[in-house]
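#struct-help
A.M.: can someone run this one for me? Single chain, 249 residues.
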Amino acid sequence: MKDQPSPIRETDDDARKLARVLLRSARHAAIAVLDPETGFPFASRVLVATDIDGTPVILVSKLSAHTKALGHDARASLLTGEAGKGDPLAHPRLTTQCLAEPVERDNAFHERLRTRFLARHAKAKLYIDFPDFLFFRLKPEQASLNGGFGRAYQLNGNDLIIQSAANEEIAAGAAETVRDLVERHPDVAEALAARLKAPESASWRICGIDPSGFDMISGDFLLRYEFETLARDADHICSNMSKIAYSIP
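D.P.: on it. Structure tokens below:
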């Protein structure tokens, strides 16, 4: 009997880029944890943002079943990717196996996560500071990408993380960088949305930058753009964004 061909394709740069976009463009995701009492998988839905290095971040109530499960066993899986029209299985999706790391309020990264989370989820301001709410960073360990029928790939955690020495410096000045860019080019968000063929919506705004790209949001729409190469610093990010917005097609 002949060996059956493997359904897993060799992972290439296109697959890595698609996986990163699926993870970093998610506003919500399905999360699966292990029930500490029964050992059965327990699935729920969570809001998602990303840290400066692309690590997914969730904000959860300490009273929820999935938070209690993560306190007992840090292993979790995150499913991202919108179904869209037609056959749901024809659309790309990414399953990321993660280790959950709680981020308490006295953690040096807490304020950064709070700022980045609110940039995506403004309504979370109603409860983000409640004492029974907690951030988790979901550190990717490995991932399974299904890019559509016949397009399956395996990735490791490093394929999804932004490996840049500029992460912390860019994070520290992110708000100022975006503010300066908008002051110089008041229509930059609209120009980017038009150039990137974003869904028609009332208004777009830049809601996040990092060495690998930028995020824009309008209502329920979130757009993620990945640069061809990692930006070296904030000026490089602004230069990349200006070229995308204003260069001749």
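A.M.: thanks! The first strand starts at residue 28 and ends at 34.
D.P.: also worth noting: The beta strands are 28-34, 41-50, 56-61, 75-80, 93-103, 133-146, 152-156, 205-210, 213-218, 221-226.
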